[in-house]
Write a structure and sequence with these properties.
The structure is a single chain. With 280 residues, the chain is α/β, with parallel strands linked by helices. Helices cover 51% and strands 11% of the residues.
Length: 280
């Protein structure tokens, strides 16, 4: 998904909120002005982070935030799983809950509010307008042999675990692989987070090979590229994965909350609306 001029401006403005370092901001502007026409936001943020380390110092760590939200959702795990099992469609409910976890995004959100996050669980039903996409997803999982989940944020991956349990229960022959970030990128989930929340105890987990908040196929290590190439069904979580992976020639399902103006406008929905779409 190409970077739009409005998105580029928003990205620059967000860097201005971080620092008033003139050399760094000049480099950010240079990166944006000279970007490849097909560059996505994940690649820009990766370049920004390199420039930040050059001009300012180490990137701020999100480890404490990751632990806070991993612990928060882990404390909710049993109750949420009981709610999933009691629902009319446990797989669909688990998918909606996993999408709610996409709210925990410090890379996009100016203010991640715990109360707002918890209130989102008041509605865990899949909307009627998403049923056609869900039916397609279900049918492809029924006939497929391999499934790949592209994860996004910390905390969210606890909900991903609950969803994957339901997926395995419905499709026991489905070989499930999970891809996390290859290093700390904002509050995105890493292998360290996957181990912490118990995801690695139940599923095969690999990384995208870099500290990059997205899934840029050309930058992936061979193992990750093969996982994508060989997957019968791919589910991609979050805006950054959509921006970096959609429209790149790989059929996939995408689910996320619309958290910024670009997504609100693109899908013509209110902010924080959940989306479930299928794209080639």
């Amino acid at each position: 998904m190409k970077l739009t001029p409005s998105c580029a401006k928003c990205m620059y403005d967000r860097q201005q909120l971080k620092t008033d370092d003139k050399e760094y901001l000049k480099e950010v502007k240079n990166i944006l002005d000279n970007r490849d026409e097909n560059a996505c936001s994940a690649e820009m943020n990766f370049a920004f982070n390199k420039a930040y380390e050059k001009y300012i110092g180490p990137m701020p760590s999100f480890r404490d935030i990751n632990k806070k939200y991993n612990d928060l959702v882990l404390s909710m795990e049993q109750g949420l799983e009981e709610k999933i099992e009691a629902s009319d469609n446990p797989l669909a409910t688990a998918l909606v809950m996993a999408r709610i976890g996409n709210y925990i995004d410090f890379g996009v959100m100016q203010d991640v509010d715990e109360t707002t996050f918890l209130e989102l669980f008041n509605d865990t039903d899949m909307r009627a307008d998403e049923q056609e996409t869900f039916d397609s997803f279900y049918n492809q999982c029924s006939s497929g042999k391999s499934f790949l989940l592209l994860t996004d944020n910390c905390g969210e991956i606890v909900l991903d675990k609950l969803f994957l349990r339901q997926l395995k229960k419905h499709f026991p022959n489905l070989d499930i692989t999970v891809m996390v970030r290859g290093g700390e990128a904002y509050n995105d989930a890493t292998m360290e987070d996957a181990k912490y929340v118990g995801l690695t105890d139940e599923f095969t987990v690999i990384t995208n090979g870099e500290k990059i908040a997205g899934t840029v196929y050309k930058r992936l290590p061979e193992q990750a590229q093969k996982a994508i190439d060989n997957a019968d069904v791919i589910l991609s979580k979050g805006q950054a994965n959509y921006e970096s992976f959609a429209g790149e020639g790989h059929h996939a399902f995408f689910t996320f909350l619309c958290k910024c103006d670009l997504f609100v406008s693109r899908f013509n929905v209110p902010r924080l609306t959940g989306m479930f779409v299928e794209e080639a």
